[in-house]
Amino acid sequence: MSTVGNMSVHEATITVRDALRLIWEADRYPILGNEDRIVAERLGSEALAKAANAVASAGDPPEFSRWLNVLRSEPLSNVTREEILPLLYDLFDPDNEV
Question: What are the extents of the domains in the chain?
Answer without folding.
Answer: 3-92
